[in-house]
Amino acid sequence: MRVKLGLGWLVTVCVPVVLVLLAVRVVMSPWFLQFEYTRPGFPVDLYGFTTEDRLRYGPVAIEYMLTDADISLLRDLDFGATGAAYTERELQHMIDVKNVTQAAFLVLRVALGVLAVCAVVLRRDGWILREGLKRGALLTLMAIVAVVVSAVVAWDFFFTLFHELFFADGTWVFLYSDTLIRLYPEQFWFDAALTVGTLTVVGALVLFAGMRWIGGRVARRGGAV
Questions:
Q1: Which one of 96, 143, 146, 179 is least enclosed by Cβ atoms within 10 Å?
Q2: What does the alpha-carbon distance between residue 48 and residue 77 come to, in Å, rounded to a whole number?
Q3: What are φ and ψ of residue 201, in 5° steps?
Q4: Which domain holds residue 33?
């Protein structure tokens, strides 16, 4: 029984990882870029990118991060008369971002695998699995509320801290005229963070409510599964 209870707590730990990274994966998609670039109030590019330009070039960086594409996908991108789209410094940062992104999604796959194994092992002790999922949902809610409040109240500090945790000093600071800032201004990242937070909260609430509903049905039937 101790082993099974331990698996229940392992489920609890995996739930926030899965919910957050699934939300990140949803945001890293063409629909989010489409929404951001076309919504009223999104910052215009002072150096000449139109909405159509952003919709053309923005998804290329997402494709690079989510596929096996080489950095040449971005290095070979050019704006015609103005030359290469990205500087070598920007390209190196994108390599770093891809490494972090792929590591994060590897963690997601592992967490999903752990949840699947735990679900199989605990199939005859469904209450342990449900409690683990409910605790995970509550843990997620507490963590996300703290992060979202921090992001809203002190966005600059939150944004800087995030980058300092994952990237070497100075490698993620760019000029406003650089392509990365023109395609993904700070407002984009603020909106992305809030969207990830919102999706994660919704997922946690649905998970918690679903587990309570299932538990209630089992209790009414007088079962222990």
A1: 146
A2: 17
A3: -65, -45
A4: 2-221
* Cβ burial 84-101 (10 Å sphere, 16+ → b, else e): ebbeebbbebbeebbeeb
Q: pTM of the entire structure?
A: 0.89
Q: To the nearest 5 percent, what fractions of the chain are helix, strand and coil? A: 75, 0, 20
The tokens of 212 are what? 């309570």
User: pLDDT, tens digit, for every residue of 194-218?
Assistant: 899 999 999 999 999 999 998 887 7
Q: Within 10 A of 170 (CB to CB), how many other CB atoms are there?
A: 7
Q: What is the C-alpha separation between 8 and 197, in angstroms, rounded? A: 25
Q: What is the dihedral of CA 180, 181, 186, 192, to 10 degrees?
A: -30
Number of domains in the chain: 1
DSSP run (H or E) holding 145: helix 126-153
Q: Is 84 helix (H, G, I), strand (E, B) or coil?
A: strand
pLDDT of amino acid 169: 79
Q: How many helices (H) and strands (E) does the chain have?
A: 9, 0
Residue-wise pLDDT tens digits, 157-166: 888 888 888 8
**84 bridge partner residues:** 78
Residue 78, SS3? strand
